[in-house]
Amino acid sequence: MNEIVILSGKGGTGKTSITATFAMLAGSDAVIADCDVDAANMHLLLKPDFGKSYEFYSGELAVIDQDLCTRCGLCKEKCRFNAILFSGRQYLVNPLDCEGCGYCEIVCPVQAITMNSRLSGNLYISETKAGSVMVHARLDIGAENSGKLVAKVKNEAKSLAVAMNKKLILVDGSPGIGCPVISSLAGATYVILVTEPTLSGLHDLQRVYAVIRKFRIKAGCIINKFDLNLTKTIEIKRFLDDAGIFHLADIPYDIHFTQAMVEGKTILEIPSPFKPLFEQIWGTLSEQLNH
């Protein structure tokens, strides 16, 4: 089974749009995993049906039993995160500020505080308009442990791929080089790096490749909107050569991509001259996987 992870060192390079286009080309042969759980948006293009939903619990949250609380204020005094408020003659926990450290539970003289598992988001298993199964998730505002949710999404996608006898998993990873990216890379067969010809695009491409290199995963790169700055494109290609990253393709800037995005579609679903280009990239990628 091949697992392709699509990454970008920064947001806004077109990573998700390209991943969704690959999902349309793969059709029912692939399982799709949207691992950009902090800002998931592939559902806008693939139109999943949110057929199955599961709650995701991670970390702990302090809860005050108002019947037991004596209003002594010790919990508020000791909380270093200022997560406990006094409102309406009650001490209340602000879930956005609570770090789940449990110190308030320890210092409460009447055991009025308990640490409960925190509901941090939801995981979904959906059918998409591409004919594929998609595993995706939503992390709640201010919730932590996005790396754990990414791992859960990936593990579910792998289990489904095995159960359905699918030979390909397409993973839309998070931008950057943080914990969600590390979690996305675990077990990957091939990484596609999507960059753009800007100073930050090149810098962040170099950063994310430094992470990939530690995993010893084969990588290719797509330069999106390459014609906006040909000097930077040349610099990126030089870096690709030096790093041994396969140059998959150059994609020009074109208004058709904006039109497709506005309509909530991939570039393959609107009249444009780019279908042959993406079919060529998909074919080249298949050759890379079998090389």
How do you describe this structure in short?
The protein is of the alpha/beta class and 291 residues long.
Describe this structure in words.
- The protein has helices at 15-26, 43-46, 74-78, 103-107, 146-163, 179-185, 199-215, 230-243, 255-262, 275-290, and strands spanning 2-8, 30-34, 52-64, 84-87, 90-93, 113-127, 133-139, 168-175, 190-195, 218-224, 246-251.
- With 291 residues, the protein is an alpha/beta fold.
- The protein folds into two domains: 2-47 and 128-290, Rossmann fold (3-Layer(aba) Sandwich), CATH 3.40.50; 58-119, Alpha-Beta Plaits.
- A nine-stranded mixed beta sheet has the order 3-6-7-2-8-1-9-10-11, sandwiched between helices. Strands 4-5 form a two-stranded antiparallel sheet.
- A hairpin with a 5-residue loop joins strand 6 (113-127) and strand 7.
- It is elongated and about 70 Å long.
- 43% of the residues are buried.
Number of helices: 10
**Strand order, sheet with most strands:** 3-6-7-2-8-1-9-10-11
- Low-confidence residue ranges: none
In the CATH scheme, the class of the largest domain would be Alpha Beta
Whole-number mean pLDDT: 93
**Can you say what the CATH homologous superfamily of the largest domain is?**
P-loop containing nucleotide triphosphate hydrolases
The percentage helix is 25-40%
Distance, first to last CA? 14 Å
Q: And the CATH topology of the largest domain?
A: Rossmann fold
How much of the polypeptide forms β-strand, as a percent range?
25-35%
Tell me the radius of gyration.
23 Å
Query: Biggest β-sheet: count, sense, barrel?
Result: 9 strands, mixed
Number of domains: 2
Which structural class do you get from the secondary structure elements?
A: alpha/beta
**Which H/E pattern describes the elements?**
EHEHEHEEHEEHEHEHEHEHH
Give the CA-based shape: elongated
CATH architecture annotation name of the largest domain = 3-Layer(aba) Sandwich
What is the count of β-strands? 11
